[in-house]
User: Fold this.
Amino acid sequence: MSELITGDAVVLGLRSARLPSRALAVCLDLLLAWVIYLALTLALSVATASLDAAAFAAVQVALFLLILVGVPIAVETLTHGRSVGKLAAGLRVVREDGGPIRFRHALVRGAIGVVEIQLLFGLVACTASLVSVRGRRLGDVFGGTLVVRERVPVPKGVSVPPPPAWLAGEFAALDLSRVPDPLWLSVRQYLMRAAQLDPAVSRSLSERLADDVTAWTGAPAPQGMSAAVYLAGVVAERRRREEERSFPPPSGTRAAAGGAAASRLPASSDGPVAPRSARVDSPGHVHASNPVDGSDSASRADGSDHRRGSTDAPSTDHGEGPTTRRGTGFVPPT
Assistant:
């Protein structure tokens, strides 16, 4: 039972129905149609008892065309290919490309179905369905339709395969904002179905998609990297950026980092104290500036210290010798 593949090598995931399930659906539809037809025939025979035989025959033909031809066509058109029997059997009529049918498809199917199913008792329809690879009868061949199964087990958890580990951070600087969403969808579908495609078809399709992506990003793919690996890496990078936008890092992380940095500063009674910077104007005059409050403390040649809160005793200066400030460990040059 082969899956449907379009001309662009896209697997539709639809499986054509075979003769047993189709025969069950047709029998249910015909049984319901004939019950309605016979009930309306009895009701009209009583209501038109005064008509002659020719008029009664015309009413019968009109009723037959309405119930057994018109109603099935209308039902398949309005429900997009799901009659009562097909709904019970889990089937649906679709176009050859997998799209929903329209009135012209249902009209051709219904008109030819009257001949090959009802007038010829289904012999032609069964023979054509057995011969066809996809189980199509003559109405499907001329109408361009196909009966597919809807109740097919679908594999769960199908997702885009992860890229190689060595691609981590390779496309971090790539601008992906201009790539349109339909192109992303095409790339994702290709990556999910790449293992099911023919190698030559997969390679050509990946190269075409990679060219489209590079045309929007403005940056060519790295040399020596295959198109499939490039697409996998780009999709992984886009997913990483979306996750960062959707789940940003908590604000407490930055606050904790700031608190850890503050705890490494030397503490005093007034709080953390920033380091002081000193400058030398002359061998006997030293300024120490505090970048926190902008205050300057000067040590002059007379040895007096004017720093706020300082408990150091005044130092003495002997002539032209170097001036030494206790507590700072700073010795200005001579």
Notes: The longest helix spans residues 19-47. Residues 7-11, 254-329 have pLDDT under 50 and may be disordered. The first strand starts at residue 3 and ends at 5.
